[in-house]
Amino acid sequence: MSTVASQKRGFGEVLWDYLTTVDHKKIAHLYLIGGGFFFLLGGLEAMAIRIQLIKPENDFVSAGFYNELLTMHGTTMIFLAAMPLIFALMNAVVPLQIGARDVAFPFLNALGVWLFILGGILLNLSWFLGGAPDAGWTAYTPLSVTSPGHGVDFYVLGLQITGAGTLMSGINFLVTIINMRAPGMTYMRMPLFSWTTFVTSTLILFAFPALTIGLFLLMFDRMFGSAFFDVGLGGNSIIWQHLFWIFGHPEVYILILPAFGIFSDVIATYSKKRLFGYTAMVFATILIAFLGFMVWAHHMFTVGLGPVANSIFAIATMAIAVPTGIKIFNWLATMWGGRIEINSAMLWALGFIPSFTIGGMTGVMVASVVADYQYHDTYFVVAHFHYVIVGGVVFGILAGLHYWWPKMFGRVLHEGMGKLTFWTFFIGFHLTFFIQHFLGLMGMPRRYWVFLEGQGLDTGNLISTIGAFFMAFGVIVMLVNVVYTAVKGEKAVADPWDGRTLEWTIASPPPHYNFKQTPLVRGLDPLWIEKTEGKGHVTPAEPLDDIHMPNSSILPFLMSVGLFIAGFGFIYQVDYNWAYILLFGGMAMTLVCMLIRSLKDDHGYHIPKVELEREAD
Amino acid sequence: MADNTNSNKADSFQKQKNKEEMQKQLITFALMILFTIIAFVIVATGVMDAMFVIPIIIVLALVQVGFQLYYFMHMKDKGHDMPAVMMYGGIWAAVLTLAGLGVISWW
């Protein structure tokens, strides 16, 4: 922080720094800003949905606009909020946890974040360009093929661009975790968040291609006159559902597994205990990932796959409850007998356990085929997946943000406001979604823009909307907290929580090279081991020497801008010939940048040993 | 002199290994060309039914993929466990998906 105070940099300089950065810590900030912005946007859409449903036959929004709202709420929250926020934490923490100086491919990392941001902007520009996508976040065909206007085109191109970024980042984390662990950091000594990041990246690698293919097919059907999903011309519209859910179900685990990792680290730290059943936790994570690929058709029980297929997928789905249950009990056992410190990060973890367990329980309920024929497309399902995604993923992200905020920004979030955020959001969350189980059981269908009076749905919807306002209040308090902390928050020490893992061995925020000397890891929870049976700080594994660092580059940003422009070209070439200029121009821009990247040798630079020695004084 | 003999020894060991490696590469290369010729010949001459030709070509192709990965791309050597795990994982996920879709469509 002293450098910031002593040499105030101009806004332009900071902007250029972030546009060209390849530093994983700054890329984490970019993911956080981008993901946070889209989270607020998705939240606004959710508020509009809840206000529309506050009373029977409300006319707050029109039917068509309601469709756009619900589609964009789902798409934004999954692809543009939850995933980037998780990537923000992964980028901020994983290289530090495994004792690395950066990710394996810093350039690729920057490309990933810019593809996400520009893809997200492309998708959301549809609001101003003739209407947002309106075929649901699942974009089921034939509705999505026949949906008029360019809304679904924006969905296809926006997600294709963001998806490419996600795939790259996934591969990047795989390579980083396999190759860049510090000496002594064996696989079975990695903190759980690093483990879940690793498994999640595998899921991204295997699951995202299915989405890419599905989106390409949809793009060709909508823009180039093919008929993959057109039954009239020999296509098959069910294929979209398969492709979407072959991606979509692993996607659910892509979201929740990192949250599991965050809770494992948070609960172990604030219970002052080694994580109970570490090995079981690791294998449960792998088992969930493994089973996650065999259950996609449980989203399609009512499609008519037949009793055999339905039964197989139902049983596979219920099997996932076993490793998840192992995890729940391990967290409880970690806290058992621990010296528990309850602060805002730990509150989110404590709130998560019952909330997520309810979500898991309703998950087993909807996994039962016969019962699912009743639940399908009702608010029961809406309640179920909000319990797992808000109660699991969002709570996890918020726990992680409160826990790692000092490491990311060098200041500790205000504790009082953190607790206020938790209680209002937690109460609001249960008010909003618990009642929706019963609305669903009473037969209220998903995605309808009005409901009728006198069907017993009025009170439940009113309560649900009131809950949504509580959640909005909690988010606003969180924002105030962030601003307050940035301005006059308490400066963080290197290890504010009496931590256990490597990220707490270096300054908050860490210097841009992370570790002056690569640490030597002597076991699980390396810092804790040194605290209890060592000198209190981690032994270096190498003598002080020059540090090799990558150069900043504007190319990732320009490549993404090229694809962003080409996206508009693809969308509008259907109507106007001039759009081909955008299409070819944008693609050319990206390809030229790739060519420059390939031909220009960039060996990075070295931080000389002398300078590092001087900094130590 | 003694030092020299030693280094020569190590060198000759390495040389021997390189020679063996080269031999293996050449043999695999020759086999791959042979397989390709066989595949072309059985299709061009029409000596077999399509029912036999297709599985034979698929088997030959699989063996070639194996050669490519294990010999040319060195997956048989040490330190390739993780790529192997990831590749077989990916193949598993793909096969599972295709099998699932197949069962659903044709059972």
Care to describe what's here?
The complex is a heterodimer of chains A (617) and B (107). Chain A has one domain: Up-down Bundle (Cytochrome C Oxidase, Chain A). Chain A has helices at residues 2-6, 11-20, 24-52, 63-97, 106-125, 143-146, 151-179, 192-223, 238-271, 278-292, 307-335, 344-367, 369-375, 379-409, 415-441, 458-488, 526-533, 555-572, 579-599, 609-616, and strands spanning 411-412, 490-491, 547-549, 605-607. Chain A is mostly helical and 617 residues long. Chain B folds into two domains: 2-76; 78-107. In chain B, helix 1 (2-45) packs antiparallel against helix 2. The termini of chain B are far apart. Chain A binds chain B through residues 174, 178, 202, 205-207, 210, 242, 246, 293-294, 296-297, 305-306, 308-309, and chain B through 82, 86, 89-90, 93, 96-97, 100-101, 103-104, 107.
Q: Helix and strand layout, with pairings?
A:
The complex is a heterodimer of chains A (about 625) and B (about 110).
Chain A: H1 2-6, H2 11-20, H3 24-52, H4 63-97, H5 106-125, H6 143-146, H7 151-179, H8 192-223, H9 238-271, H10 278-292, H11 307-335, H12 344-367, H13 369-375, H14 379-409, E1 411-412, H15 415-441, H16 458-488, E2 490-491, H17 526-533, E3 547-549, H18 555-572, H19 579-599, E4 605-607, H20 609-616
Antiparallel strand pairs in A: 1-2, 3-4
Helix pairs in contact in A: 3-4, 3-5, 3-16, 4-5, 4-7, 4-9, 4-14, 5-7, 5-18, 7-8, 7-18, 8-9, 8-10, 9-10, 9-11, 9-12, 9-14, 10-11, 11-12, 12-14, 12-15, 14-15, 15-16, 18-19
Chain B: H1 2-45, H2 50-72, H3 81-106
Helix pairs in contact in B: 1-2
